[in-house]
Structure formats: C-alpha cells, structure tokens
Amino acid sequence: MSLPPTDKQLLALAQSFRTTLRHAVYLSRSMDSDGELTTMQMSTLSMAADEPLRVSRVAANLGIRVPSATEQIIKLEQAGLVLRQPDPTDSRAVLVQLTETGREAWEAAGRRRNERVAALLEQLDDDDRATLAAALPIIEKLNHTA
Amino acid sequence: MSLPPTDKQLLALAQSFRTTLRHAVYLSRSMDSDGELTTMQMSTLSMAADEPLRVSRVAANLGIRVPSATEQIIKLEQAGLVLRQPDPTDSRAVLVQLTETGREAWEAAGRRRNERVAALLEQLDDDDRATLAAALPIIEKLNHTA
DNA sequence: GCTCATAGTTAGGTAGCCTAACATTTTCGG
DNA sequence: CCGAAAATGTTAGGCTACCTAACTATGAGC
User: N or C: more exposed end of chain B, with fewer CB within 10 A?
Assistant: First the structure.
C-alpha cells in the first residue's frame, strides 16, 4: 500500500479527470443557463456582494481582460443590478457595488440554482454524497495549485 | 448514522458543488487552452476517433446546433484533421471521419494535456488522489442524470 | 407518386472576448 | 516639486463561436 504512484497510474487518473471535468463543464452550463443570469454575471455579483470592488479585480477574478469586464459591468449597470462609482481613495479607479435589486436578483438566482443541484444530489446515496463532499476541497486545491 | 440528509445539508452541498464546479471550469479551460486545439475540437476529434459519425451527432454531443457544428467541422476539414464524406447508406447525411493527421494531432494533444494534469495530481497525497478517483464516477453519474 | 420529415448548408445576426489606442490620475526619482 | 513612468478605465475595431431562419436535397410513408 501507499507506494508512490507510477506515471501510468497518474496519467490514467489525469485522463479520467479531464474527461469528467469536460462533462462537468456541460453540467455546470446546463445548471446555470436558466435565462436569468450568466455564470459570469453571477460571479461578478457574488464578488460585489461582499464589498465594492474595482473593475480590474473583477477582470482578474473572472480571468478576462479589463475592457471585457468593463463591458459586462456596464450591462449589469444598465440592468440596474450594480452601480459604478469612482473610488474616493483613487479617482482613476471605479468601484462596482451591488444595488438592492442586484442583491435580490443574485440571491434568488443562487437559491434556484442550489435547489436544482440539490434535487440532483438527492438522487445519490449517502456514500456517494460523502465521497463527493470529500472530493470538493481536493478539486479546489488543484484549482489553487494550477 | 445514515439518516436521510436534511434539505439544509443538501443545499449546502449543492452550493459547494456549484462553486467548485465553477472553479473547475477555469481549471479545465487553462489546461485545455494551449493554443493547439480547443476543447470542442478535442471532443469532436475524440468522437470521430472511434468511428465516423454524422454532423447531427457531433452537434448533439457538443450541445450545440447543427449549423454551428457544420461550421466547426468545416474548419477542422480545412485544417486537414477530418474528412467530410456522404454517408453511403443515406446521401442526405455527412460522415465526419479522422484523417491520419487528425488522429496524430488528437493523440499528441491528449498526451500533452494528460501530462500537464498528471503533474498537478502528483502534488496531491495518496489519500487525496484516492478520494478524487472515487468521486469521478459519481460526478459522471450526476452528469448522466441531468 | 406526392407529401412530409430528416440532414446539412448558407445567410445574417448577436454576445463575449480580444488588442491597440486613448484620457486621466497617481507615483516616484532627480 | 516636477516631469516621466506606471496604473486604471474606457473607446474603437475586430474575431470567433454560437444562434435562428430559410433553403436544398434526400428518404419514408400513405
């Protein structure tokens, strides 16, 4: 037991992982595409839910360039979900903050998505759920490493 | 033990799962964006690797519409990676099949991606890897259910 | 054989991303 | 303390991948 894994084993696991991840992307897409808010919009709103943040932070967190973030944020603003205000401590910067409408929309959409996923998870047995729950932080670890 | 999970527990797991999945989408994107082949192209090639298949099958498997699939397949054809040939049993249909070049490109890209992921997985300890390996089929189960 | 369904392609449009160029503000070395 | 360089956003223009609608051609059924 507990011998160091061979390259072959690692590569086999890597392949399964990639395949599952690819399928999971579809799963994620189908769970999040309910015509309300896109995944990116949800992420943006959830960032702003904690505290107002800069456009450049939004871009970095979303993994996109600043002009693209500006574009998306302006759309959220036009939808009345966020406000764009100059940063009082640095007038180059723009702070993105949630409106009350935005917070409500974000929370409602999150609830609905959670319920949809919970309905899926309900069909697993307890062991499977436990395994899944144990694996989530490991996947996060990988994400952080990469 | 083994009581039925409460709604609260399910919703909490659902939330974690959604979050991790969202992050995993980024992970997947970064692992697959090496400027060679897009994830969609890899998927298309891997489908065609088993046996020639119809454009409509490609579209269905990729979760996109037929015209979009046609577009992508034509690009793969122009790159010399696939051939488009009329189905001998139904001349309305078009069969997409891999060229030798396509097979080599697909295998090489798959190898490189696997190596990259294996390098990540190598940094986990044995327990984590075992948990991860156990979770993959469960996630597939969810994907199949949804 | 005529009608209707099926398989793909073409045409035209949209959304989200990109880079390059710009205006404004801050920072900092001389 | 001032001019150059860096940082923050926005604007402009372009690309790609997706979409729907309309079309052609083939197959299937009464």
Answer: N
A40-44, A87-91, B21-25, B88-92: the lowest-pLDDT one: B21-25
The CA distance from A11 to A8, in Å, is 5
User: CB–CB of B95/B52 below 8 Å?
Assistant: yes
Contact B127, A11 (CB under 8 A): no
Each residue of A3-28: pLDDT tens digit?
A: 566 888 899 999 999 999 988 888 88
**Would you put residue B132 in left (φ > 0), alpha (ψ -120 to 50) or beta?**
alpha
Strand locations in B1-146 (E): 53-54, 82-87, 90-98
Give the start-to-end residue ranges of the domains of chain B: 35-145
CA distances to A52, A73, A79, A102, B46 from A98, in Å:
7, 11, 12, 5, 43
CA B55 to chain centre: 17
Is the CATH code 1.10.10.10 the one for domain A33-145?
Answer: yes
Give A1's pLDDT tier (boundaries 50, 70, 90). low
Chain B CB within 8 Å of residue A6 CB: no
CATH code for residues B35-145: 1.10.10.10
How far apart are the C-alpha atoms of B113 and B99, rounded to whole Å? 21
Q: Residue B121 corresponds to which amino acid?
A: L
Q: What is the mean pLDDT of chain A?
A: 92
Out of A13, A20, A114, the one facing B121 most closely (by C-beta) is A13
